[in-house]
Automatic annotation (TrEMBL):
Entry keyword set: G-protein coupled receptor, Membrane, Receptor, Transducer, Transmembrane, Transmembrane helix
Gene3D superfamilies, per the entry: Rhodopsin 7-helix transmembrane proteins (1.20.1070.10)
One GO molecular-function entry: G protein-coupled receptor activity
Membrane-spanning segments: 36-57, 69-93, 113-134, 155-173, 203-226, 254-276, 296-316
GO terms for cellular component: plasma membrane
Family listed: Belongs to the G-protein coupled receptor 1 family.
Source organism: Pocillopora damicornis
Protein name: G-protein coupled receptors family 1 profile domain-containing protein
Region annotation Disordered: where it falls in the sequence: 1-21, 331-358
Topology with respect to the bilayer: Multi-pass membrane protein
Subcellular localization: Membrane
Pfam families: 7tm_1
Residues annotated as domain G-protein coupled receptors family 1 profile: 49-313
Length: 392
């Protein structure tokens, strides 16, 4: 199906159990190292970039716009992809075992949760891109009336998650583990009530239409109309006001950024859809699945999309660049301030210790001086008495 979580759970792993002639995949250590390093890099970039997007919008008052709130919604979905899909994939690459291979109820829960999470996050991202496209459309064609208000935006964000849960819900029903502990596989069991042979294909086609073909067609249509409006706004011989010209420039920059995000999303997930349709069309030919490296690459490209988005915002948008720089500089200043405080505390402590040592030293010197004076006084008193006695 479309939303297999890791390559091991896709067709090669499933069919190799039924077809013992299938060769073992992913055995070369240096290949494992390269693939694991690629995933670890993407994970780190995704965690840092998406957390920074959420932080910048939350901390910067002027960044709290409807478009940015929708972008934050995508960032949250990308963070879930990183945690629930990229990390288990990295685990499989390094260990050669699915994370649900532990078996038992934990393995069963992971088998259901991870494919569901991937389908959920893809759905949220797609629906959010559609919402952003409509927001830009109304901002250009209805500039004097805010159609999508903050209240409406909150409802849209809630709807993206609710509709995504409904669309991805079948994963929780059909995904199940087979095999013993350490050898468990995550498979789909559609029967009952659906036909085991046709249901996976039909569901994948439905996902392709709902989460790829229709949304991207709609987004492309909206952005085409917007671009035509912006680039053709100025009629021959007519000059725009400076205020309107500045607004158009800003809208063009935002539009370029959003179009880039949509294109990257489409290119990132298209290979995975192609792979699935090839598997359905040529199932007799690819009994053991497509070549493993191809399986890995299609999934890696889809996951890498979660790491790319934040840096697209930074490249195209000055506000995000400034926000990233400000957040990083604050962290550096905070670290420097903490180091300075620590150094100051150590300096004060050292000074107190030196002062106490000096006081103790001075006190000891005073005691010695008093003792010497006392001895000297006693010697002066006892000397005359001795002399008198001798004279007598």
């Amino acid at each position: 199906m479309l939303n297999q979580t890791v390559p091991a759970s896709s067709f090669p792993a499933e069919t190799s159990q039924d077809y013992p002639s299938c060769s073992e995949q992913n055995t070369k250590e240096y290949v494992k190292g390269i693939k694991a390093a690629a995933y670890i890099l993407v994970i780190l970039l995704s965690l840092f970039g998406n957390v920074m997007v959420v932080r910048v919008v939350h901390k910067t008052r002027r960044m709290r716009t409807i478009t940015n709130y929708l972008i934050v919604n995508m960032a949250v979905a990308d963070l879930l992809t990183t945690v629930f899909n990229m990390l288990p994939t990295t685990y499989w690459i390094l260990r050669g075992l699915d994370i649900w291979a532990v078996g038992g109820w934990i393995g069963e829960a992971l088998c259901k949760l991870l494919p569901f999470a991937q389908s959920l996050t893809i759905s949220v991202s797609v629906f959010t891109l559609c919402a952003i496209a409509f927001d830009r459309f109304f901002a250009i064609f209805r500039p004097l009336k805010r159609v999508i208000t903050f209240r409406v935006a909150k409802g849209i964000i809630s709807s993206t998650w609710l509709s995504s849960v409904i669309i991805s819900g079948p994963q929780l029903y059909v995904s199940t583990t087979t095999g013993e502990k350490g050898l468990a596989h995550c498979k789909e069991k559609w029967d009952p009530p659906f036909d085991e042979n046709t249901a996976p294909r039909d569901y994948t086609i439905a996902l392709f239409v709902m989460l790829y073909a229709l949304p991207l067609t709609l987004i492309a249509s909206l952005y085409t109309v917007i671009m035509f409006k912006l680039w053709r706004r100025q009629a021959p011989g007519q000059e725009l006001s400076s205020n309107q010209e500045n607004k158009d420039k800003t809208n063009k920059k935002v539009l370029k950024m959003l179009v880039t995000v949509v294109i990257v999303f489409a290119l990132s997930w298209l290979p995975l859809y192609v792979r699935m349709f090839v598997m359905f069309a040529e199932s007799a030919r690819y009994v053991c699945g497509l070549p493993y490296d191809m399986d890995f690459l299609t999934l890696f490209l889809g996951h890498a999309n979660s790491a790319v988005n934040p840096y697209i915002y930074v490249i195209f948008n000055e506000n995000y660049r400034r926000g990233f720089r400000t957040a990083l500089s604050r962290r550096r200043r905070g670290s420097s301030r903490e180091l300075s405080r620590s150094t100051t505390r150590r300096t004060k402590s050292t000074r107190l210790q030196e002062k106490e040592a000096n006081l103790l030293h001075d006190d000891s010197r005073q005691k010695k001086a008093v003792l010497r004076a006392f001895k000297r006084q006693n010697s002066e008193i006892s000397l005359p008495m001795t002399t008198t006695t001798e004279n007598l």
